[in-house]
Amino acid sequence: MxxxxxxxxxxxxxxxxxxxxxxxxxxxxxxxAGADGVEIRRELFDHTQLDALPELARQIAAHQLEACYSxxxxxxxxxxxxxxxxxxxxxEAHQLSATWLKLSLGHFRSSQQFSLLQxxxxxxxxxxxxxxxxxxxxxxxxxxxxxxxxxxxxxPVTLTFDMANWLWVDESPEAAARVLAPSxxxxxxxxxxxxxxxxxxxxxxxxxxxxxELLKNLPAxxxxxxxxxxxxxxxxxxxxxxxxxxxxx
Length: 249
What we know:
Strands 1-2-3-4-5-6-7-10 form an 8-stranded parallel beta barrel, surrounded by 4 helices. A two-stranded antiparallel sheet has the order 8-9. By secondary structure, it is an alpha/beta fold. It has 11 helices and 10 strands. Helix 5 links the parallel strand 3 and strand 4 (about 100-105). The protein is about 35% helix and about 25% strand. The mean pLDDT is about 95. It has one domain (about 5-249): Divalent-metal-dependent TIM barrel enzymes (TIM Barrel). The two termini are about 15 Å apart.
């Protein structure tokens, strides 16, 4: 069975998405490029669009795409408790007919509230995946502690492995892959280069082959998402190129 390729709407850039009228305008591009799904980003919605999730879900289905939903929210807030917004975010993901909801880890301290999270997840068919972000909460040590706690307590939460975010937090992506790979169910494919005091994501064709070697150390059956810049005069052609690359490597 061919591996799934997902296109993250943010890859087209906030300004271009706004000029096109919103994320729904990208659906024909993504579908015609041969992708299997689209990652919808909550931060790219205005209030009107957020109220129209069922209609967006219908459009996604009409283009025969799978949906996943990314929200710029942590699983655990600063006091170490579960983010109280999670039930409403799971509901939004349900309205979008999304297969999974992606959050960052946030301030994970202990598994004391796992039973509550288990309860929330039991009330929805939406899966939860947790990503390493570009903050200290996304460093390897807390991600590894969370991974271990989920395994011990049999919590049905898996990981999104963002291949380049490790660079922002001074971690080795390769070391992270060795430890976290068994729990990874979704991969954000991204390459980055040093830029001023941080990093900048770049297209794969412009990157060193490190990303490809790293990808080989992650689960081959995990959906791969394009989260690097997709730019050019013909966005369908550009997108199709990388969909083909990531399906074949």
